[in-house]
Structure prediction request, 1426 residues.
Amino acid sequence: MATKAVFYRSHEEQSDQMLHSLQMASTTTKRKFKSSDEEATYQDFYPIVSAEVMSMKELLDFGASSRSKSWETLRQAATEEMLEREKRTLFGNEMEKVEEEVIRNCKFMRRKVDRKALRHKAEQKAAVEKKFLEDRRMRPPDFIIPLRSHTVWERMEVKLSCTVQGYPKPEVKWYKNGVPLEAPFPQPWKYNLQRKFGLHTLEIRRCTTQDSGEYKVVLTSPLGQSSSYATVLVNAYQGALSGYDCTRSPTPALVKEADFQTTFPPSFAKEGESLSLCCLFSSTLLPYQQGVIWLKDGLPVTESKGVEILNTSLSSTLSVNKVYKEHEGVYTVRLPSMTGAKEHSAYVYVKDASAAVPGAPGAPLDVRCSDVQKDYVFVTWKPPSADGSSAVLGYYVDRCDIGTGEWVQCNETPQRLCHYPVQGLQENRIYQFRVRAVNRSGVGRPSKSSAAVTTCDPAKASRVMVVKVDTGKEIIITKDQLEGEVRVPLPPTDVCASMVTDSYITLSWTEPDPRGREPLNYYVEKSIAGSNSWQMANLDTSVNSLRFPEFALQKGKSYVFRVRSVNKYGVSDPSEPSEPVSLREKIAPPPPPHGVLASRDTNTSVVLQWELPKQAQEVIGYYIYSCEVGTDNWVTVNNKPATGTRFTVHGLTPNKKYVFRVKSVSAAGVSDYSEESTPLTVKAAISLPSPPSGVALLNCGSNDMVIGWRLPANNGGDAVRGYFVDQMDVSEGIWHEVNVKPIAKRIFQVSHLQEGQFYRFRVFAMNIVGTGKPSKPSDPFLCEEWKMPEPGCPYDVVPREVRRNSLVLLWEKPLYCGHSPVTSYLVEMCSGEGADNWEALMEEPTDKTYFKVSGLEAGEIYKFRVSAVNSAGVGQPSLPSEEIRAEAKPGVKDIEIGVDEDGFIFLAFETPEMNDSSQFVWTKNYRDAIDSGRARIESTDNKSKLTFTNPSEQDLGLYTVEISDINDISSSITFTDKDLERLLDLSWQVRNPLIGLKSGWTVEVFERGDVRLSLRVEPLSPAAELKLIFNDKQITSTPNRKVNFDRASGLVEVLIDPFSEADEGSYTAQLRDGRAKNQFTLVLVDEKFRQTLAQSRSNKRDWTRKQGPYFLEFMSWKVTEDCEVVFSCKATNTKKETSLKWSKDGREIPKIDYNPQTGISSLTMPQIMKKDVGMYKAVLSDDRGEDVSVIELLDEEFERLQKDLCRQCALSASPLAVQSTAEGFKLYCSLKYFLDYMKTSWYFKEKRMDSGARTRSGSSSQKVWIEILNPTESDKGKYTLEMFDGRETHKRTLDLSGQAFADAMTEYQRLKQAALAEKNRAKVTKGLPDVVAIMEDKSLCLTCFLAGDPAPEVFWLKNDREIVSGAQYKITVEPGCSSIIINCVSAADSGKYSIFVRNKYGSETVDVTVSVYKHGEMPAEGAVEM
Prediction:
């Protein structure tokens, strides 16, 4: 990256003084003043009295006035003139001294510049000669003495040696059987490589058979490669080979080295994203340039997981897959060269990733581990630059066991300092650590994980001794083995506090010696100094290492500590107590730096410097913050602490003012902000101007020449104040200065030359900083008077308004016109870098001194030249213009044409960059100055505006603007008659404006029932006025009708509460803002008003309802899959006292389901009937109010319910089934619930079946059927049941044919026969009572009615024994009847009597119990008394 010179205030003051001296020197005429002692003038003797001294009266009366008065007046005037002359003399002499000093300084500066130029030229010449000598010394690598083969015995030594040569010095590599031999060797004592004055030796000690093989030496340099090989045989006498192989490449010709063509700028990345830095080379890298190196903060970057370096012959790229803040810093790519290394550097900024919690701090960085023990690691980190919404309170440290991959938090309370001792780890485990910052808003993102560390005993290596024996084996002896007799360990020693902070003390000690063979751990005890009251410090923690952090301490108290060793045999005595130690006072963050000073660097960067804080011992870096002036948006510049007191801030917006502040960073946190720097505008720093170019001869006389030159490509950020010209007589070869005072113009006439001599010229540019480097010497010019008839060359050919496909070329008329005036010009173009094939751009010459070139190819490089034409012909062409690429400069805009807020037509231009001395130059047709009477020009900062006072056709034409000292920023526009007509119309609209409407009147009804009428127009000024007219009357804001007018947003609103019939009508808003005005009307009448009023009242009722408990969901019903009807509603805003009651037609429904947690209440009806029709109401109430939900299950609502219920019932219908009966077939369908509302139809073979002689349909609550009486074969076929639920039809079918019909018919025949048998079976149709009671001595008659075909046989039984008709028992049997009479019953007649009837179809028995009681007794309870 090019280094920018930064000039401070003192340098600028010196430059201002020098400029002032030069200006005085250039405007002061060399004149010698006489003092008062020198010869007097004629006026001393004959003074001439001025009219200012004598009055008019004295002049008129001069002859008559007294002589004494005139001489007194003359004497006084002479005295005053004498004094005035002395003052002028003194002033002139002083000025002469100043002028001589300035001239002397200029000569000194010129001599200094010349010496510096000569030195630079000498250094370049010496470098060329040195490179030539080095090229002559170049030799490809070669072997003067190659390797030779060796045959040796086992355990002997062998030496392989060779002598090499080559320049540059070749790289030497040894190989064994194709495998490189490189240090460190597996057995360092076995191999020894030596090199001395081109002699390279490989020594192999104590050879074994494994050392047999082919050994090879390879020499490598940019000029080629050479190799030599030999065979080493151990215990063998044949097969030895030796050879020599060499490849040479010819010494290359002098080829131009590759250089950086494109480089990477300062880059900005975000945590978690990828980063790629790439630089391209101008040509293929030469062999010695292949070793391209990348560095970060001066240290080499090595490839690793996530970091990749890709080098090719034309580019080099550094890629980072996932960026962390640790990757921030200065990245450098180093390219080798013959004269040293070429470097390019740029800073890479890494921004914080998005916060995991809004307002949380950023992630800490640079987490490192040190003092690794068996169960202890000391972790340190650096605080983040972003605190978030509040200051950082502390940090959480997390650890991760690589084996498990799980992150565990180490500390319960946030650690305030940026270090923490982690205790309780497991030995021989690999751990990583990370840190999270926490503030009042929450915990931030975790930092990048630390490098993995393995917990181990650091002193273990010191207790191990390795003994090597002759056979190549190793004997390992540990100190523990030598201490096997030690049982109970000795106490530790050297107990001390290795770290003391304000929150913990870290103890360290030395293990006992001897320590014994068994593993040790330790007990740590503490006591308040002087109390001798010891207590365990590690009750809950096992200490296995020599470190222990103690947190449970009180501030202000002094403690002593001692340690005991523990193994499986016992506990040692305590160690000697440590020195008394106490917690430190709270460590405060460092003080902020001061003296923050910002200075200019480039167009997008600033150099920031500051003074160290007063106590800078513990400061580890600084965070920088920037803010654009006029905003409060502070931006973090660097997220990795800067280590110095100087930092370059990149990524700023050009020409914007910024202020900066800095924080100090230490282990205790970050400091407060420093004071803000002085606001600074982001511009490039002022430096010396670059050399002028294109020195050309414009005219030549016999003893003088007129030369001209182009502007410097870069003026250094300040306007060029003048030029110095040097000349050189070619025959002498010595440069001489031509002018002592700077020349303001770029044309200069050099006089006092010798005719016939050749001269060269060079030019220096000067600005406020000083004089820049000289231009390239011109071609030799012959001093000979021009007499050719053709004109001389035009000059100052410059491109303007460069765009992708066009540009405008400007030039100046030639100073030498030839023998006739110049009439026109020819323009030629050459495309391609370094090309010289010129072609004309026009068919006819132009008479103007500008020309617009079109049809260019974007990105191509072009040059132009111009020739003047007169009557004698075409003159010599001008010098070619500088090479220009056809592309627009980033940020350059075209001229804007429009009408301002006052109605004036204007042209405006905004430049992307501007120097302190830059000025806007407006012209018409590229040459004519702007008439101040027709337009005025106003420029502020980087904007300029040309405003026409009274635009007319005289103002039409081509207008151009450019920046005085920035050549590549310019623009033009053609002001046409169409533009004039359009803008004049727009001007009238601006001067007579209408307020624009964004959105018309809208009517909104809010939740509480209030109504808002609103209107939005374009933003208005604070002086805007509003008149609101309602029904032809102006209204103002009242409590019931509030009027709001927000001018900034253009909002007009009317809030009406309550909204009533009185608000019906038209509303008109009349607005005025300066000259702008407009009005907008809302007609709120008829249907629109009625709808608004109804909605307002409805919303108000609803809002009032919701002040207490209310129904979030009103009562509704639904039909479930089980064909049940469920009524439900949902309540909200309830409390314990809230009651919910259901009722139907005014009668309360006691059993309802209500869940107060969810607010859902429900009533389930398994069946719905006509009696369930009515009005259902739910009332929710408490002391805040009540809400009612009603559903009327009547008429249409009940019909809709039945339809839904019928549909669900139809969906629950099972498939058709057949059941055989004694009468025929019964086809039926089962449903969960059947309603009469459902219309059912039966079909047989697609023909409707109606009830008749052979068919009979019916239904029950859960079944629908049809009976087919006396079925026959004609009843085979498909039967269909259609159920219509009021909306759709549901079908169920049955194919009654084949086996299904045969089975049904068989069952029907069986049931028919069974029915016939049951009909004709003998049976008692009218039976006897169960118990009969009769008094003694009475007669008992028992009669039964019988049925059966044929007539049944009748038998009477007593106690299961047949009764024979006789005197006591009389049995009669008649058709359809049978009786038994028992005469004069006695107690012996009591018992069970039965009648048994039978025929061929079956039989039946009926029993009766007869109870006979005596006179005076009561009959049995429940008996029929006869």
